[in-house]
Amino acid sequence: MSQLLEIENATLKFGGVVAVNDLSFSVKEGEVYAIVGPNGAGKSTVFNLISRFYDPYAGALRFDGQNLLARSADAVADLGIARTFQNIELFDHATVLQNLLVGRHRHRRTNMVQEMLFTPKVRREEERHRAAVEDVIDFLDLQPYRDKMIAGLPYGVRKVVELGRALASGPRLLLLDEPASGLSVEETQDMRWWIDDIRKQMGITVLMVEHDMGLVSGVSDRVLALADGAKLAEGTPAQVQSDPAVIEAYLGTGVV
Amino acid sequence: MRIHFKTSYDHDIRLFPDLWSFGVYAALLVIAVILPWLMDDFFLGEVTNVLIWAIAGLGLMLLTGQTGQASLGHAAFLALGCYSCIIFMEQGWPFLIAFPVAGILTGVVGTIIAIPAIRLHGIYLAIATIALSILADDIIVLLDPITDGVSGKFAPMITIFGIEIERWTTPDRFYWLVLAITVLCTLAYRNLLRSPLGRAFAAVRDSEVSASAMGVHIARTKAAAFGLSCAITGLAGALMGFYAGAFNNETFSIVISITLLMMIVIGGLGSIHGAFFGAVVVAFLPQFLSMAKDLVGGSSVAIPGLETGVFGMILILFILFEPMGIYGRWMKIRIWFELFPFARKDMFKRQKSYLKTERLR
């Protein structure tokens, strides 16, 4: 399997705080790769680096051999990288359907004038986008919420809608920032099956940040443990969980 | 209660959800077209004024209601549209060319101004755009050779294919012209809302971070919103010039900008209906107040600031009790009747939501 995402010696500083410290890892095409670590370890910062919300202080980011640093935040989506957010960032004053359709924005083929006149091409494109979005709605069982406003939806459903919006863009790499946080046991179980299916049926590579070790060891092929922005351990879920450095970072040492 | 039974994706895309609402709007259009035979010239003039304000409201609604960018500078774009259209016509251009070109010119200038302005957010953008309103006044005076500065300009006669249109001598023709432009602007607005760019506008309004993660170019989208908004406002400005007949540097003052913003807030932010409801309030309030003054017998007493005061109070009451504006209230009443007798009191409980777009900064 080829390397889809490569991060080499990435460093990010906020003033004196080193958020990401000389971090290198790579994600293979078709795998589920999880990042774990205590709060403040820099997990979400790594995501924001890949999404190009932050500029790294040093280092290189490559996606499928292309230099990510040469692209702006909106051009990252064009490569086929979609993401969800830790604190849900949906479009609150729009329906579920409209939110998912925004996910299709990178496939827009019409311009402003055509859209104002609503030419037949715009209609054809709209139907094409809609068909793609309906596939996602079927996959995530969102049918009851299709025309509901986001502002009135429960947290668990919003979490799924956000996953749906990322999937609607037809990505090659899916970044999931704590997909199971705040979800009930059943909802977490659903999320686990979906992540499995996303990888197996749709062939999408998944990079996720997650605290729920049950979910992490259930779905991921490899795990990266972070602490203070630096790599602590990398390997299969079992290897990482038994790594002494990881145990120390989470629980502290036994010395009095 | 009407239930939409959808059998194809087109049912969600088409302009009217069902035959009933198509019928309602068709009837509305028919009444609008035959209005000159139903009303005397004075009230027809007032309705024309409402429509012109509604077009200007659509322009600002696109920017503020749809894309979430406040602007207190739209009087400047009204002025630019008005002056450019009439100056083009003075050069001998026919109305059918001068009018759209004035709109496009205003849109282009708006986009150019937007490029630095859209780096600002929320209240800061509002403050920066106030400067435009104030500048417009001075620029009109400074450009005296072109704009005739303080003495002002008079709107020429509109001629379309030999038909002469003028606000005072042929108010019905002028009304139909404004009505046609209103319908076209509304259709264009509605079409935008159901296509990718309209959704990108809403995405930028609700969450810039995730909009850019979905591939929406934030700056470009905001500039497009600014440009379109200014173009529509420019068209409305040109019509205002023809409606007023004469105008100078003080016609498009900052008060007009503020009125415009208040209008769309009172009407209901983010809806096409809101622009129209707000326009009705703005255009009829002075008439209503003078009638009320007649009733209490104080018609000869001039009360300075009465109009502004009442307007401000209405705005405060709306923000406190009905932030969704007249359109929001209208929807609630409609839903109440549609669900009768099953509507519950807490169905429309407001949820606190904070301006999320500022979060990453």
Can you offer a commentary on this structure?
Chain A: This is Sulfate/thiosulfate import ATP-binding protein CysA. The complex is a heterodimer of chains A (256) and B (361). With 256 residues, chain A is an alpha/beta fold. Chain A folds into 2 domains: 1-80 and 171-256, 3-Layer(aba) Sandwich (Rossmann fold); 92-170, no CATH class. In chain A, 39% of the residues lie in helices and 24% in strands. Chain A has 10 helices and 10 strands. The longest helix of chain A is centred in the middle third of the chain and has 21 residues, at 120-140. The radius of gyration of chain A is 19 Å and the shape is globular. The N and C termini of chain A lie far apart (47 Å). Chain B has 361 residues and is an all-alpha fold. Chain B has one domain (18-348): ABC transporter involved in vitamin B12 uptake, BtuC (Orthogonal Bundle). In chain B, the strands form 2 sheets. Chain B has a two-stranded antiparallel ribbon. In chain B, strands 2-3 form a two-stranded antiparallel sheet. In chain B, helix 3 (41-66) packs antiparallel against helix 11 (218-244), helix 3 (41-66) crosses helix 12 and helix 4 (74-90) packs across helix 11. Classes of the chains: A alpha/beta (256), B mainly alpha (361).
Question: In a few lines, what is going on in this structure?
Answer:
The complex is a heterodimer of chains A (256) and B (361). Chain A is α/β, with parallel strands linked by helices and 256 residues long. Chain A contains ten helices and ten strands.
Beta-strand portion of chain B reads: under 5%
Tell me the CATH topology of chain B.
ABC transporter involved in vitamin B12 uptake, BtuC
Spatial strand sequence of the major β-sheet of chain A? 6-7-8-3-9-10
Overall geometry of chain A comes to globular
Order of helices and strands of chain A: EEEHEEHEHHHHEHEHEEHH
Helix content of chain A: 25-40%
Bin the helical content of chain B: 55-70%
CATH architecture tag of the largest domain in chain A: 3-Layer(aba) Sandwich
Low-confidence stretches of chain B: 352-361
Q: List the helices and strands of chain B in order.
A: HHHHHHHEEEHHHHEHHHH
- Give the integer mean of the pLDDT values of chain A: 92
CATH topology of the largest domain in chain A: Rossmann fold
Cα distance spanning the termini of chain B: 45 Å
Total number of distinct structural domains of chain B: 1
Q: Oligomerization state of this entry? A: heterodimer
Number of helices of chain B: 15
User: What proportion of the residues of chain A form beta strands (DSSP E)?
Assistant: 15-25%
Radius of gyration of chain A: 19 Å
Determine and state the CATH class of chain B.
Answer: Mainly Alpha
| Rounded radius of gyration of chain B (Å) | 21 Å
State the distance separating the first and last CA atoms of chain A: 47 Å
